Amino acid sequence: MKNLLVCALIILPLTAGAKEQKSIYGSDNRQELFASSSEMQKLADSVVSLWESKNIAGDGKTFRLNTMNFGQALNLCATERFRDQPIGAFCSGTLVGEDIVMTAGHCITNETRCADTKFVFGFAVKSEGGNAVTSIPASEVYGCKKIIKRDLSTQPTGFVSAISALIGSMINGGTGPDYALVQLDRKVDGHKPLAINRKQRLAKGDPMFVIGHPVGLPLKVAGDAKVRDAGPRYFFMTDLDTFGGNSGSAVFNARTNLIEGILVRGGTDFVQSPSGGCAVSYQVGQEEGKGEAVTKISALAEYIPALKKAPAAAGKNSEAQGVEVKDSAPGNDLLNKTGEIKFQ
Question: pTM for the complete prediction?
Fold first, then answer.
């Protein structure tokens, strides 16, 4: 059954053709860390990639990330961006407390899964022409102490039910919240928690950006997106350029730099090229499709401890977050040594 599930997760995105399933809207806006603004780099410093313990080996001082080549793993066409980079992270997360990481509920399913996860700062391409950092100081790698709070409204049982629910959430964006707050095994040193929007009033057209690890790649920043639908109670829809692996990524308001939600669901990531024989990113017009689903930060704000108030110059309503905040109103998860690719 495990092999069947893995195959389903790989094949379905590659063959789906419904117009509502997209991952790149208009131009591909993903940027490397070094190419983003200094303000974005400060925010990105508080983003983590999530790894299975078996894909990290260390000697007490340094950890080596076990990765695969992106292009080879997914049989990508030569035109695909980042195809020569390493992949390996299975989800993304963000530091929101001195020892608290926020991610998606489907990334951390239970305490056993949490205990087997490493939270890594600094998996990124940090200079033009440079390679992704895959040798990480032990001080930048954290473990899980416990799950503080988790919610995944639809938790199907049984193989067929699980597949049906997965396909339904990919196409329709789901209906309920999807989040997890994890307490790390120690307080984080050298990185500052980011502020959330505790007075959330989302509206269609609000500008958004996301920071995370699409397809388990080194960190990417993607902006030039907006809220398409402020949505029902628990989630909103955007046209962010996201993929599996972005699951758990914080979604920010571009006017305030405050976190508005967590990227949790999306559509098709890759399809076969028209000529066949290799895969390409599924790309459509900016206004097409249903978009990507984001759990609203209001669904979990009460479980995130308030940060100290920032200096007045950083905005009277903002929290301290290691970056200056403007005072203005307004998915996957992969691999192991056997070569199995698992999107979440």
Answer: 0.79
